[in-house]
Amino acid sequence: MSINHNRARPVYINLLQIKLPISAISSITHRLAGIYIFFVTLPLSLFLLYFSTKSYNDFMFISSLLKDSILFSTFVAFSFLVFAYHILTGVRHLLQDMHIGESLEASRVSSYIVFFLWSVLVAAVIWRILL
Amino acid sequence: MIGSTLFYAQRLSAIFLLGYTVWLSSFFLFNQPLEFDAWSVFTDQIVFLIITSLVSLIIVIHSFIGLWTIGTDYFTSRTLGFVSPAIGKYANIIRGAYSLLFVLWGCVVIFILLFTIWS
Q1: Which of A13, A43, A50 sits opposite B78 (nearest CB)?
Q2: Residue A6 three-state SS
Q3: For residue B80, what is the nearest residue in chain A, using CA coordinates?
Q4: Where are any strands of DSSP class E within B7-77?
Q5: Is A119 at the interface with chain B, CB within 8 A?
Q6: CB–CB of A82/A122 below 8 Å?
Q7: Residues B32-48: tens digit of each pLDDT
Q8: C-alpha R_g of chain A
Q9: Which of A12, A35, A46 minimises the CB distance to B70?
Q10: What structural domains does chain B harbor?
Q11: For A70, A85, A95, B3, which has the most beta carbons within 10 A of its beta carbon?
Q12: What is the residue-level pLDDT of chain B in tens, covering all 119 positions?
């Protein structure tokens, strides 16, 4: 078998050129969500925990902030939805680690199930904010 | 460290954090709308203080393994070199800085969480 040595071989990995299957998208977004949670949702939770337990006035301040500021409530809702997404895809990965739904087809179906469940959650939260 | 230890630490911590999330979520679900009194009684009980202290440590372990895996997967000369070969040359330094960032951030998170619940 002859090898074409003249052809430039790729040295670097272009992540944007690789066409990812749905299960890989589920996996990589799980990782991205993880980064977001560690650097945004976690400090936000600490902020909310600190002020909501500090005193009654601080609790009321946080709760009025959530009611009155659409920007802040959207930010909080988004941050916790990202957390919910990480949990849903995480449970899927845990099940696969226990050899449940490991096949190519099952993995594809479970990715769609996770996206669907999360979409329902997003719709419910948007509904709650607008109500 | 042995890879399988990290693998199991990652999964076991995930299950623990999942349980904690379900516990907190069920409290919020059954206490709507949330009142200050119910919330401070819940966060002052010894069970909450002990489990949340454990959680602060477990979150950092779980995050460390996850972020370390992401670093060694994507912040390498092969992947960063795609952005620019010049950046790719400094991949080890960039990954080191990134690791330092999340380790320091993890320490800050543990400190603030423990300070918040025990003060």
Answers
A1: A13
A2: coil
A3: A12
A4: none
A5: no
A6: no
A7: 889 999 999 999 999 99
A8: 21
A9: A35
A10: 3-118 (1.20.1300.10)
A11: A85
A12: 688 999 999 999 999 999 999 999 999 999 988 999 999 999 999 999 999 999 999 999 999 999 999 999 888 888 888 888 888 888 899 999 999 999 999 999 999 999 999 98
C-beta separation of A93 from A99 below 8 A = no
Q: What is the pLDDT of residues A42-84, one digit of tens each?
A: 999 999 999 999 999 999 999 999 989 999 999 999 999 999 9
User: Nearest CB to B113: which of A46, A91, A97?
Assistant: A46
Query: CA–CA separation, A9 vs B107, rounded Å?
Result: 43
**Integer Cα distance of A79 and A37 in angstroms:** 7
The interface predicted TM-score (ipTM) is: 0.92
The C-alpha atoms of residue A47 and residue B112 are separated, in whole angstroms, by 9
pTM of the model: 0.89
> Domains of chain A by range and CATH?
30-130 (1.20.1300.10)
| Chain B residues with at least one Cβ partner in A under 8 Å | 11, 14-15, 18, 21, 34, 36, 39-40, 43, 59, 63, 66-67, 70, 74, 78-79, 81-82, 85, 88, 102, 105, 109, 112-113, 116-117
Residue with tokens 């749905």: A22
Spatial contact of A54 and B43, defined as CB atoms under 8 Å apart: no
